Amino acid sequence: MELEAATRRFHLWFHGLRELRRDLRSARWADDPAQLGALVGRFVAHMEYYCAARAEMDPVWMLSAPWASPVERGAAYWLAGWRPTTLVHLLYTESGGRFEAQLPDLLLGVRSGNLGDLSPAQLAQIDDLQRRTVAEEDGLSREMAQVQEGHGAVASGGEIDVDGIVERARAVLGHADALRLRTMKRAVEILDPAQAAELLVAAADMEIGFREFGLKYGSGRDD
């Protein structure tokens, strides 16, 4: 995929992310689990589609992300994208904030059905998701460190195997995208539709917020 095409693909994906955030915000208070479930599915499919497109991209471009602002690259990126455990941390943060806000109602037995009303079973599954994701992240970080340190970079003739290095980097970045997608899908499976909608709105807010901040203050450029 050429750089111009990759940049255009990113902007199309980002525009779609804004639209999905708008739709989820509008629908998350509606008493229609089917509608929310469909929108959550569209959000995950949007992420899945972009990950598939990124698999065709030059891994050097993925790592350098020329379409991103320095703020995004420096503060928000891990292996060319957001760290999967960030989604779990966001889930805990959103849940904790809502739990405190509605604690009086919960003590009276009034259930909200939102992220402040997670069941013990859900919390146990989220904890398991976090532990598994941390372990996989650590493994991928070690793999990328080996690529960057040049492990296995020298071919039999004593020359640097540049193509081999690029392909190893591509494989690690592909696994990182797969972990991002897998983490999102598992979180959505654990949550009810309204809860999943809240989490995905918060995730979109974070992604869009980093970009807007970077474009405004970090010498970024939105082409």
From TrEMBL:
Top-rank lineage group of the source organism:
Eukaryota
Q: What InterPro entries has UniProt attached to this entry? A: Seed_Dev/Stress_Resp_Reg, TGA_domain
**Pfam families annotated for this entry?**
DOG1
- PROSITE patterns reported for this sequence: DOG1
Recorded GO MF terms: sequence-specific DNA binding
Instruction: Provide a GO biological process annotation.
Output: DNA-templated transcription
Record domain DOG1: where: 3-220
Q: What is this protein called?
A: DOG1 domain-containing protein
